[in-house]
TrEMBL record:
Residues 315-335 are annotated as: Disordered. This is Archaemetzincin-2. Keywords: Hydrolase, Metal-binding, Metalloprotease, Protease, Zinc. Pfam families: Peptidase_M54. Its cofactor is Zn(2+). Residues 315-328 have a biased composition (Polar residues). SUPFAM superfamilies: Metalloproteases ('zincins'), catalytic domain. GO terms for molecular function: metal ion binding; metallopeptidase activity. It comes from the Eukaryota. GO terms for biological process: proteolysis. It comes from Hypocrea virens (strain Gv29-8 / FGSC 10586) (Gliocladium virens). PANTHER family: ARCHAEMETZINCIN, ARCHAEMETZINCIN-2.
Length: 473
């Protein structure tokens, strides 16, 4: 076990709206009334709103706070990103509906590496400084640091991934894709690590239909991964191998990915209209991902943490202009976000279990996968709340974002999945997610799962016990 030696922050004040950096970046959040109207099926404000999220929770910032919009975040870089309300989602011509005949999500494991390209096994090894030495240390001895523990993290298990996604997309079938994809030679190239950063080669990807695709590959620009594969070429291979009963298919890759020549890396992408998506496990490897200093979600709303990031981004430090959101002291009756932060707290003297890094790798991966699969259901990036459907510009931002869907995105997801009217659908979905999170509900194993379980407990408790009506397609 490793000892948790990090300095403990009490998170005594929280930002429940956007950060002070938001106005500097030019981001203007939708008003409370606009957010409510965005979730309605006709865009009209009525006394009795037929919303899946109770109005008192919808308007409670301690349940659904605003997006942080910190320096270098996606909304800070693109503050005029157009919001997608429920009606725009519903009326999108390219949206693929879930039907009785097509309601299965297939997850394709990383392709098998054939012996002729065995050099590709090196492609999934993180090259972060000292990572190789840490990985080679004896895994049987007593661990003294978090970094040593990270070195023995295991890839997320397929069954764990399926269980989380089955709960997140409650009402759809989530299954493994049984027919294998295989890496093999393309021409004479056998997967050796290239020497020049300006060189691009192709590696062969044999699809189940026996068609061989040439997948572009290159050196990683930042040197964190040995080699990267091209996302667009991967998606082309997927598009030709969609089962008849599939709503969408996603490939999960062990190696790093890139999309365009100017990209450093791409963690995942979905082409919703084509029902295909790909996600890389590589950057969520604890050896590659940013270290969680205690301010990953749910503690990412900590005012002291946010103020420090905003201060560091000011060069030279300047006084913010315009009206700034206020930080709010955290109260004992502060709501789901408060109980999530409490549940995610870790005693500084507590030992970290050996499984912790592996579970943290899993948590980051499934949140990314759920985000991309929601794109396959037609959901665009969210600008209304802190939400699992926010855009993400970097790995630090990814750790700060919540795993839950905001009230607007929840309306879209449940309407997409719902077949007519479903009684208690939202509650069933929340309870299914809670059962999955409970497996790793110890904060020393996973702050995210522990916080998410507590958040779900609080939301379920505060939600009405009667039937919840899902808007008909």
């Amino acid at each position: 076990m490793a000892t948790n030696t990090e300095q403990v922050c009490e998170h005594s004040n929280l930002y429940l709206n956007v950060s002070p950096h938001a106005s500097k970046a030019g981001f203007k959040r939708a008003t409370e009334r606009q957010r409510i109207l965005a979730a309605t099926k006709d865009g009209r404000f009525r006394k009795n709103l037929n919303l899946l999220t109770p109005k008192e929770l919808f308007e409670d910032e301690m349940t659904f706070p605003g997006p942080l919009v910190l320096p270098d975040d996606d909304l800070a870089e693109d503050p005029e990103c157009p919001p997608q309300d429920f009606r725009e989602w519903r009326d999108e011509e390219e949206r693929n509906p879930v039907t009785r005949e097509r309601k299965t999500i297939y997850i394709i494991p990383s392709p098998t590496i054939m012996p002729e390209v065995s050099k590709m096994t090196k492609w999934s090894e993180c090259r972060r400084q000292n990572a190789t030495q840490e990985k080679e240390q004896d895994a049987t001895r007593e661990f003294n640091t978090q970094q040593q523990l990270e070195a023995i993290a295991d890839h997320p298990k397929g069954q764990d991934i399926l269980e989380y996604l089955s709960a997140f997309f409650h009402g759809m079938d989530v299954k493994p894709f049984e027919k294998p994809f295989r890496w093999q030679k393309w021409d004479k190239y056998a997967g050796g690590i290239l020497k020049s950063p300006n060189t691009e080669r192709r590696i062969g990807l044999l699809a189940p239909n026996n068609e061989l695709f040439g997948i572009r590959c290159r050196l990683s620009p930042d040197g964190v991964s040995p080699m990267q594969v091209n996302l667009d070429d991967i998606l082309d291979a997927l598009a030709e191998n969609i089962p008849p009963d599939a709503h969408s298919v996603m490939m999960l890759l062990h190696m790093d990915m890139y999309e365009g020549d100017g990209d450093v890396f791409t963690a995942g992408r979905a082409y919703g209209g084509s029902r295909i998506a790909a996600v890389s496990l590589f950057r969520d490897n604890p050896l590659c991902a940013p270290h969680d200093d205690g301010h990953a979600w749910p503690s990412s709303h900590c005012a002291a943490y946010i103020d420090q990031l905003c201060l560091e981004a000011s060069s030279p430090p300047s006084k913010q202009t315009g009206r700034q959101p206020s930080s709010r002291p955290r109260q004992d009756s502060g709501g789901p976000l408060h109980v999530a932060i409490e549940a995610a707290a870790v005693n500084a003297k507590r030992k970290i279990p050996l499984e912790a890094s592996s579970v943290q790798w899993l948590e980051r991966t499934v949140v990314t996968m759920a985000h991309e699969l929601c794109h396959c259901l037609g959901l665009d990036h969210c600008t209304y709340f802190a939400c699992a459907m926010q855009g993400c510009a970097n790995l630090d931002e990814a750790q700060r974002q919540p795993p839950y869907l905001c009230p607007v995105c929840l309306e879209k997801l449940c309407t997409a999945i719902g077949e007519g009217t479903r009684n208690g659908f939202v509650r069933e979905r929340y309870e299914a997610l809670r059962r999955v999170c409970e497996r790793w509900g110890d904060a020393s194993v996973s702050r995210m799962f522990a916080g998410y379980k507590a958040w779900l407990d609080a939301v379920i408790e505060r939600s009405p016990g009667g039937d919840v009506m899902v808007i008909e397609n």
